[in-house]
Design brief:
Helices cover 15% and strands 34% of the residues. By secondary structure, the chain is of the alpha+beta class.
């Protein structure tokens, strides 16, 4: 595994070869039969809505769902030095041609009424790790528009970023987007980490 610090402030790190081909295939094969249209958080109600700002399909898998997932989770925890019991379930997603996720924050805005129910379970999100399970033929980069950064997905690599700032404030500079896939498909698996143990 190789580490590249893309940014120190805010913290954005790329890890190459963090997953094997077999591990990538395992997550894709596991998700394929249960893929369903991805949702976004309704900021008013706290529910989940289908929205055109996110046009992927996804499947969720709890911590330790398979032996391979448990192995990957231990590796992630040892790499980023955050306990895996603070992690949400794996979300595995497929983006087809044209699939995208418009610019957004992963943390919950405390000012939104819909955030309360999510903040009550493990507290605020503090970090994200995106695992790239394949290399799209074209497009599908992860872009940070406010920072002028663009990261190309490559099979087996991962992108990690932290957005917990001083006084518990979340860093708005970590607004990011999954850019449209121009050719082929894009497969990712995402882990979000919380302040406290996540049920």
């Amino acid at each position: 595994m190789m580490l590249t610090a893309i940014s120190y402030d805010p913290v954005i790190i790329r890890y190459d070869q963090i997953l094997s081909d077999a591990e990538c295939d395992h997550l894709i094969d596991l998700a394929m039969p249960t893929l369903a249209r991805s949702h976004v958080l309704n900021r008013s109600t706290g529910g989940n809505d289908v929205s055109e700002i996110r046009t992927s399909e996804g499947a969720y898998f709890p911590r330790g769902h398979t032996e391979i997932i448990a192995t990957i989770e231990r590796r992630i925890a040892n790499t980023i030095l955050l306990p895996i019991d603070r992690a949400e379930p794996f979300q595995v997603m497929r983006y087809r041609v044209g699939g995208r996720y418009d610019a957004h924050h992963d943390f919950f805005d405390p000012a939104d009424p819909g955030s309360a129910v999510h903040l009550a379970a493990g507290g605020q999100r503090i970090a994200t790790m995106i695992l790239y399970l394949n290399t799209p033929e074209a497009g599908g980069t992860t872009d940070f528009p406010g920072l002028g950064l663009s990261v190309r997905p490559e099979r087996g690599s991962a992108l990690y970023f932290e957005y917990s700032g001083q006084g518990g404030r979340s860093d708005a500079r970590l607004r990011h987007a999954g850019m449209p896939v121009l050719s082929g498909e894009k497969w990712i698996a995402t882990k979000w980490f919380r302040e406290r143990v996540y049920p």
